[in-house]
Amino acid sequence: MPPTPPNAYDQFHLPAGDRHALYVAQYGQPDGPATVVLHGGPGSGTQPSVLEWFDLSRQRVVLFDQRGAGRSTPLGEITHNDSQALVADIELLRKRLNISRWMVVGGSWGATLALMYAGAHKEHISALVLRGSFLASAREMQWFFQSLKAMVPQGWAALVNGWSEAQKNHVLATLTQHLLRGTDKEQHDAAMRWAAYEDSVMQAMNGKLIEAPSSGARQASERVLAKYRLQAHYLSQGCFTSEHALLDIASGLKHLPVALIHGTHDLVCPPENAVRLAAAMPHARIFWVTQGGHTPADPGIAAALRTAIQTLNPP
């Protein structure tokens, strides 16, 4: 049984404009060195399990749900929701909490967003920890939605079951069409297909070959539907950035302490991403996790996160 997460000493919703309000929670010591954690997805929402990476007896940790995600409102809203708005939200939150500089920790999509925030506000960042970095490239989209079928054949077959050849050749575009412009039935079906495919990929990284998910009509929960609508909205538009722009930002962070954490068996965000980032910022410290996957629940990934965070934010 996982440990019970500590109680937040502060929780509130921060109005961010355009009807959006961000759920925020603070943990640890109000006067300790501050860290903000940027969750993945887009749309996944924050998880209290990330608190295990920190020493809450001396550190201050800020968690929040990005626009449309988790406990932020309106749930699943894609209007006035893009990467630039999220960067502005992070800075709004920093000012609201009266924090002059903070460590920024982000994984997967959260690492993408951390880089974009650093590009706009690096003077307010004390250190950067990027785990399983995603570079928002067409290369990665092609890998995850098309080429990865070679590694998870059953999961991919279930993802595209019943589709035409044209739809199978453009998986992300098909999912986006169903999730953002489809009927209620099509939206829920697409969300469940995507969720089941992600689960098959995660299990493959754990050394398991799972059975294909059962077919038939399935109803996604409100939160699952919101998550994948947000992902479709962002991924179909290249997350409103580019790999070139992100690497350009990275090359400008020469005086900022940076840790790159990546599993050698990450099937979601290829290890090549860490190599490209390291080439752009050779001063960064790389933590390779042998046979590590993508999820921070991987013991090796979690251990590397704890080490990197404590190394860059010592007592």
Detailed description of the structure:
By secondary structure, the protein is an alpha/beta fold. The protein has helices spanning 83-96, 109-121, 138-145, 153-159, 165-168, 171-181, 184-205, 222-235, 243-251, 272-280, 299-312, and strands at residues 10-17, 20-28, 34-38, 60-64, 102-107, 125-131, 258-263, 285-289. It folds into two domains: 10-136 and 241-312, Alpha/Beta hydrolase fold, catalytic domain (Rossmann fold, 3-Layer(aba) Sandwich); 138-238, no CATH class. The chain has an eight-stranded mixed sheet, with helices on both faces. The chain is globular, with a radius of gyration of 19 Å. The chain starts with 9 loop residues before the first strand and ends with a helix.
- What amount of the residues lies in strands? 15-25%
Mean pLDDT: 94
Individual helix count = 11
CATH classification class of the largest domain: Alpha Beta
Cα-to-Cα separation, first versus last residue: 30 Å
Q: What class would the helix/strand composition place it in? A: alpha/beta
Within CATH, the superfamily of the largest domain carries the name Alpha/Beta hydrolase fold, catalytic domain
**Count of distinct strands:** 8
What do we call the CATH topology of the largest domain? Rossmann fold
Please identify, by name, the CATH architecture of the largest domain.
3-Layer(aba) Sandwich
Low-confidence stretches: 210-217
Helix content percent band: 25-40%
